[in-house]
Hints:
This protein is α/β, with parallel strands linked by helices. The chain has helices at residues 15-27, 49-60, 75-81, 94-110, 130-138, 152-164; strands spanning 3-8, 30-36, 66-71, 86-91, 115-120. β4, α4 (94-110) and β5 form a beta-alpha-beta unit. The termini are far apart. Adenosine-5'-diphosphate (ADP) binds at residues 8-10, 14, 16-17, 20, 89-90, 92, 96, 121, 125, 128-130.
Amino acid sequence: MKTAIYPGSFDPITLGHLNIIKRAAVCFDRLIVCVMVNSGKANTGLFVPEERVELIRRVVGKLPNVEVDCSNILLAEYARQKKACAVVKGLRAVSDYEQEVQMALINRKLNPRLDTMFLASGAKYTYLSSSVVKEMARYGADLSDFVPREIIDDINARMAQRRNG
Ligand code: ADP
């Protein structure tokens, strides 16, 4: 059984992420989408990690071989525990490349059984990031081209809460 991990912040999940998830799910028997908790910025997100997991679960619910998890340990170690052979990464632009290749090499050094597979971002989504979504939401823009429709209300509600509190 071939297991892959798709790690990220997913604050929140976007249509760009979902595109990568659907394509990667076809390539592996099991795909684990993992919200990685970076200790340095644990409390600075729009959603806490558990909420991000819940939003992703809602969106990938119909994909039978996709699981959603959350972790605060090193990715290479997490992959070892899950017996994963690959990490999946989406590449949007050359600007993603340098850092992603560095991470891939470090992860392989830490866990020689782990390879990183890069999927080119879907053409429609190369401009999209969670930060762009948050910026749009802050100004009340229509989010339907950016995030799955099941989570639009949650994002708008959280933004409204932030504005009022
Ligand atoms: P963001 O930059 O949106 O905050 P994350 O840290 O959650 O992204 O990213 C997790 C993974 O998804 C990374 O491999 C990142 O390159 C990839 N990714 C993010 N947005 C897109 C997109 N629009 N298209 C393809 N891959 C993406």
